[in-house]
Design brief:
alpha/beta; 11 helices; about 25% strand; about 375 residues; single chain
Length: about 375
Amino acid sequence: MRLLHTSDWHLGRAFHRVNMLGAQAEFIRHLVTTVRERGVDAVVVSGDVYDRAVPPLAAVELFDDALHRLADLGVPTVMISGNHDSARRLGVGAGLIGRAGVHLRTSAAAAGTPVVLPDAHGDVAFYGLPYLEPALVKDEFGVEKAGHEAVLAAAMDRVRADLATRAEGTRSVVLAHAFVTGGAPSDSERDISVGGVSSVPAGVFDGVDYVALGHLHGSQTLTERVRYSGSPLPYSFSESDHRKSMWLVDLGGDGSVDAERIDCPVPRPLARIRGRLDDLLADPELTRHEEAWVEATLTDPVRPAEPMARLCERFPHTLSLVFDPERAPGEPDVSYAGRVAGRDDQEIAEDFVAHVRGTGPDEHERTVLRDAFDAVRADETVREVAR
């Protein structure tokens, strides 16, 4: 069975101030063309179809168009909801849509109920594990501690239990939206940490033939059977070195996996340039970036006049301007942005306690802070779903 694995469309999302809806529509056309021309038997979409729980109308219309195009092909599609989606909204009409061959899996309760598709070698069972917010699904799975690994492990127990009841030789595909250990994140993914832990080990998925992951925006191979497709478009400059693609996966009759990357259309390349303003404007090596979307980091000791206007004269698609002035050796970095760069909310809060009190928080206080951040994030998730 030939599968096309994609994820993280984020319909409705902009790239800085650039509306990406046209590029997203071009990706959908490319997806449909690939399905038709490469003889795809099933499409899997591993979450974050939309960029937010209540997407703009134009994004909903594009998704509706995508559903019609996929249904018209007569090729089954299996989709799950991600942490940016409202599972309840995305799942509205799932029963009716399923009759057209587009199977939406947005409920944690259905983790062990697969979409079964046959081929010449027998059945392939597709299990959809939508994003599982631990605080919201721990009771469904009967786990005491609300953590990503615990709820995913419980969901996979249901998958393996169902698979054990099926005919010998039934192959299995799991769609999951999660941060799996070994994956490389980018700046454009929403933090899903619970208790200071965001990732789960790849071993939680043992026992299935292929795991189609979503959430991380870079295409990655964790094992031959566990892969991220990545997002089809860039959503931060941290993705400037990404090759945006989908996985074309041939699942053999014996469960073997052979995968090929299918490149996605690139609306415009990304470039990160760094240096003093006058040097950036004169450097001939930067000519290749003149038509790219540009993030420029200026290192001038003194902020130059009208830097964005001057940059745009040479790089008209400059979208982001960062200041990181050169400092003399031993001179302290007084930039707040520099102090918090790469640090999560927990670490920033602990630094604040140390700054105000003179000593950092003890283990009990760290736990209180962690629980508070987890509670706020879970409450925000509940509010998004309820809107």
